[in-house]
Amino acid sequence: MIYEEFATRVLRENAPDIIEEQRQRVLQYYNQRTGRIDNALDMRKYRVDRLAGGAILTFDYMIDLRFLDIKFTATGRKKRIYGPVYNKPLWGYVYNYIFATLRYGLNEKVRNEIFDDLRLSVELLQKPK
Predict the structure, then answer these.
(1) Are 60 and 46 in contact (CB under 8 A)?
(2) How confident is the model at residue 31, as a pLDDT?
(3) Dist CA 70 CA 54 (whole Å)
(4) Whole-model pTM?
């Protein structure tokens, strides 16, 4: 129960940062285009669902974004303009920040809750009757 709540909160807090990171990369590499991808990222939606034992983060966005991250065309030629906007920022952020937060932040949260419960118990025991 504690982990589900903690995981949901961490994912909900970090989803806008992931969207912004991808948006900045699109602007950096593909700004000279029509702006359709940038507009789609501005209207991008996400949701965090609780599962038994954890949480899941789901993004909705245009499929074109996924294919921008491929370095080669269907015929095998290297793309003239290439910038990592899907896999690299997404997995880098998830692995380096969210995973570490879920792994070590929960320990601190549980430790603080146990300490608060113990302190409350001691205060209740020391109260004169």
Answers:
(1) yes
(2) 64
(3) 31
(4) 0.65
Lowest model confidence (mean pLDDT) among 27-41, 50-64, 108-122:
27-41
What interhelical angle do 2-30 and 106-126 show, nearest 10? 140
- Residue labelled with tokens 């290297």: 78
Burial class (CB in 10 A: 0-12, 13-18, 19+), 81: exposed
User: Do you know the residue count of the chain?
Assistant: 129
Domain extents in the chain: 2-126
Over residues 23-46, the pLDDT tens digits come to 887 777 776 666 677 677 777 788
User: What are the residue ranges of helices labelled H in the chain?
Assistant: 2-30, 36-42, 64-68, 87-93, 99-100, 106-126
